[in-house]
Write a structure and sequence with these properties.
With 543 residues, the protein is of the alpha/beta class. It is built from 17 helices and 13 strands.
Length: 543
């Protein structure tokens, strides 16, 4: 007998399928076979040349072309709709699809441009942007992977959606996430598993995994994700794209759907994922130009500050291994590649160890579970769905904190953050110089096998959420079984048992072609500076 929650989920999937016009779909018999794992180049094989010509451009190039009258928003939006649909056919990305709304909006922008004599409505004029399923769009659902939330179209937009519309963005799709968001995977009982463009046995990361997946296939030039423990940076790394985790209070989060909503123990932030580093800057600058502090009381009144990188060698603190869980060979190789590229470019690099990272990660895990899992469990119980196994560590086995315990927790958290800040302030390079940026892995592995509960440690990203530091994730390389050979499990880190299991998971062939990135880290509210410094790192890698 089929449970009521299963019927509701099946009806939602049918509704999504019906929203995709057949004329945008590639016929089933033309799609690559299931055993073709790397499908990242399939769009170039199956889509018309005019679609490829447009969708291979970055967001920065596209807005410039539309502002110059060389492309229309209707043409650009149509091209990305077609490429996104193919990406969905191959990877299972969509949760909501509304092309008619997008094309109407694009036509209105084109008409404005024509009637105004070539003026644009804003810095993102005509640009298609994808949305993680958390972001509210009036008339569209944000079920966020919960069966209980199906059937409730939103009555208003998230504040960031309104501000980006004002900047000229065109929204056309919402993308998949894990139930409750509390997993670095992308699967739920409503829409199922999203997979990785470079190896379809792997996951695209999470919780903004649908965004990582659509961008990896260039089904959108820019997308918006959120990050409470790595949920922008992990899918950026696993999907071979770029992402920025801004500090809390820089970008507006008002009216964004969430689990653990209004918890202040560790705060989720929103930010862009993109196909290029320039696009992260384009988005950040365009959003801050809308003065979000006038619309979200939590936003700091901080205009975008152009940052010029000093004309001197920069100083980079490199942390390849945090001493808690040792990363897999592809990740260690990526950090080594970055280190050697920066040295060759004339910058100063030195080996760095962060301040008591295991203690910080333990504080973070407690921050995620202060309610004893009641919030997530309540939304599962409302429909009777079982949820996904990935989120159970945040639901089961935790006791809710009392108010006095919460106050004590906040004290412990502040003391740790203060000690960490002092440690960073006192960290100098061997030549006695202060650090310009801290570079560390995004995670232990080059993606993880899809649906297998093998992302065991989130400390490389999550610690930075606790500290609220600005982080930019950039792609570096891909896992190669011929180079990244297996090694015995070290079991020497502070979380030795987790490390041992993690290394037992490492079968080089299973991770073949999985993208690997690094994160470039600065202090709080240093978005402009870290975007510029990330450009220095990328230039060194390309050289």
């Amino acid at each position: 007998m089929v449970a009521l929650w299963e019927e509701k989920a099946a009806a939602k999937r049918a509704q999504l399928a019906a929203s995709i016009p057949k004329e945008y779909m590639v016929p089933e018999d033309q799609l690559p076979p299931a055993d073709r794992l790397d499908v990242s180049n399939v769009p170039k094989e199956l889509l018309p040349a005019d679609v490829i010509e447009i969708t291979e451009l970055t967001g920065t190039e596209l807005v410039a072309a539309m502002a110059a009258g060389k492309l229309t928003s209707v043409a650009v939006t149509t091209a990305f709709i077609k490429r996104a649909v193919l990406a969905h056919q191959l990877l299972n990305i969509f949760t909501e699809f509304f092309p008619q709304v997008a094309l109407k909006r694009a036509a209105e922008l084109d008409e404005y441009y024509k009637s105004s004599g070539g003026k644009t409505v804003g810095p993102l004029h005509g640009l298609p942007v994808s949305l993680k399923d958390q972001f509210r769009v009036k008339g569209v659902e944000a079920c966020m992977g919960y069966v209980a939330w199906i059937g409730e179209p939103d009555k208003e937009n998230s504040t960031i959606v309104d501000l980006l519309l004002k900047a000229g963005a065109v929204f056309f799709v919402k993308t998949n996430i894990p139930t409750s968001l509390m997993a670095a995977e992308t699967r739920n009982c409503v829409f199922g598993q999203t997979v990785n463009a470079y190896n379809r046995t792997l996951a695209p990361g999470g919780s903004s995994g649908g965004e990582g997946a659509i961008l990896s296939m260039k089904g959108a030039p820019i997308g918006i994700g959120t990050d409470i423990g790595g949920s922008i940076r992990i899918p950026s790394s696993f999907s071979g794209v770029y992402g920025i985790r801004p500090s809390h209070e820089r970008f507006p989060y008002l009216k964004v759907a969430n689990s653990l909503e209004y918890s202040e123990t560790v705060v989720s932030v929103d930010g862009p994922l993109a196909v290029s580093l320039d696009d992260l800057t384009l988005f950040s600058k365009a959003l801050v130009a809308q003065e979000p502090w006038k619309h979200d009381p939590r936003c700091i009144a901080l205009p975008f500050r152009e940052y010029e990188v000093p004309k001197r060698p920069l100083v980079f603190a490199i942390e390849a291994n945090d001493g808690v869980v040792t990363p897999h060979p592809p990740v260690l190789r990526a950090v080594k590649m970055v280190t050697e590229a920066l040295k060759k470019a004339g910058h100063e690099v030195f080996e760095f160890k962060s301040y008591k990272p295991a203690e910080g990660v333990e504080i973070l895990v407690r921050a995620w579970t202060v309610d004893g899992g009641a919030n997530i469990q309540g939304d599962l119980d409302a429909s009777g769905e079982p949820g996904i196994p990935d989120i159970m560590p945040f639901v089961k086995g935790h006791k809710a904190l009392t108010i006095p315990e919460l106050f004590k927790f906040n004290k412990d958290k502040l003391e740790y953050k203060t000690a960490f800040l002092e440690y960073m302030n006192n960290t100098l390079s061997p030549s006695g110089k202060p650090v310009d940026a801290w570079i560390r892995p995004v995670g232990v592995s080059a993606s993880v096998p899809a649906g297998q509960l093998k992302l065991r440690y989130l400390g490389y990203t999550g610690l930075l959420n606790l500290l609220d530091y600005t982080c930019v994730a950039i792609p570096v390389t891909k896992a190669d079984p011929a180079i990244d050979v297996a090694a015995p499990a070290p079991g020497t880190g502070e979380w030795a048992e987790v490390e041992k299991l993690s290394w037992e998971d490492y079968v080089p062939e299973d991770f073949k072609n999985g993208p690997v990135g690094v994160q470039i880290v600065g202090g709080r509210l240093e978005e402009e500076r870290m975007l510029a410094v990330a450009g220095v790192v990328e230039s060194a890698l390309k050289a």
